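Researcher: Please translate sequence to structure tokens.
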Amino acid sequence: MRFLLVLLTFSLLSCGTSQKTVNVTTDADGNLVGLAEKASFEVAPFNEWFSPNYKEYIPDNQVVNRLRPALKGIKIKAVMGTWCGDSRREIPHFYKLLDATGFDYNNLEMITVDRSKSTPNNEQEGLSIERVPTFIFYKDGKEINRFVEYPRETLEKDFLKILQDVGYKHSYLD
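Model: Translation complete:
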């Protein structure tokens, strides 16, 4: 399995991809840990949950059209666990939503964590991650808000509220 991930990483980097460097491996339980990208989830065994959840999700086009301009200049740090049911549901939806908006993946950092919510290179350090998935939105280098674990309404509506700065509170804030 590690050989496959190393081979995948090498092939992605050698094809001139413009995305950030992938630095992902698997832990003793076979979970991804480190910096990943969409292609990391499109190979076995992760594609067993990623592909069907990606395919079945249909974002609300009206909200997507409003998200497109709102995502300009936004950077996102996403933290997830391949062992986590909520991450397995939301990460494919997240990528489908970003694809629908034409989001520039150079502005995304996907951090995959182990069950203790850490990585070998401590990419999660300083992010105050309590639950996964967590999507942290940044503008001009400053965190503007975050989505934690599951939506209050829908993924796209929650993201739009975050980007419109209308007092969005994630599912664990009241």
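Researcher: Any highlights?
Model: The domain at 2-164 is CATH 3.40.30.10 (Glutaredoxin).
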